[in-house]
From TrEMBL:
Subunit structure: Homodimer.
One annotated Gene Ontology cellular component of this protein: cytoplasm
Name of the protein described by the UniProt record: Peroxynitrite isomerase THAP4
Function: Heme-binding protein able to scavenge peroxynitrite and to protect free L-tyrosine against peroxynitrite-mediated nitration, by acting as a peroxynitrite isomerase that converts peroxynitrite to nitrate. Therefore, this protein likely plays a role in peroxynitrite sensing and in the detoxification of reactive nitrogen and oxygen species (RNS and ROS, respectively). Is able to bind nitric oxide (NO) in vitro, but may act as a sensor of peroxynitrite levels in vivo, possibly modulating the transcriptional activity residing in the N-terminal region.
């Protein structure tokens, strides 16, 4: 079976496609947390629809036990650079982020955040993300967040090396 042809609508995001592994481990920090490191696999694909599918799976760098997971879709408004990022996380958060793609950089910010009724406090209130393909061909992701007790602060930074197209 032939792989599906990519929808031309998502062509501006084609630089994100592939399976990516963190190299070196990602770094996390937040005023209410001890700094931590993590391994992460990012899988970004398409099935011919006018959107990309993604999953991010983080693991402890020493024990390889699962940590954070999220999956969802990245959509472009046709004939624009406007992007929507829809994500469901294993922490019980569901979010919609919106922003723009410019060249090989995608900057998005939370439009809406929902959570399960028994989500751990403090609650996340805002999220921003920036994805960019650097000059070495590696994908970088930086995530910042604000909670009910902390202002917008960088939370995660990870650099990925592409392992499959």
């Amino acid at each position: 079976m032939e792989p599906p042809r990519m929808s031309p609508v998502v062509e501006p995001l084609s630089w994100m496609l592939g399976t990516w592994l963190s190299e070196p481990p990602g770094a996390g920090t937040f005023p209410t947390l001890q700094p931590f490191r993590y391994l992460e696999e990012a899988h970004i694909s398409h099935v011919g629809q006018p959107m990309l599918n993604f999953s991010f799976s983080a693991f402890h760098p020493d024990t390889h036990k699962p940590m954070h997971r999220e999956c969802g879709f990245i959509r472009l408004e046709p004939d624009t650079n406007k992007v929507a990022f829809v994500s469901a996380q294993n922490t019980g958060i569901v979010e919609v982020e919106e922003g723009e793609v410019n060249g090989q950089e995608l900057c998005i910010a939370s439009h809406s955040i929902a959570r399960i009724s028994f989500a751990k406090e403090p609650h996340v209130e805002q999220i921003t993300r920036k994805f960019r393909l650097n000059s070495e061909g590696k994908l970088e992701q930086t995530v910042s967040m604000a909670t009910t007790t902390q202002p917008m602060t960088q939370h995660l930074h990870v650099t990925y090396k592409k392992v499959t197209p």
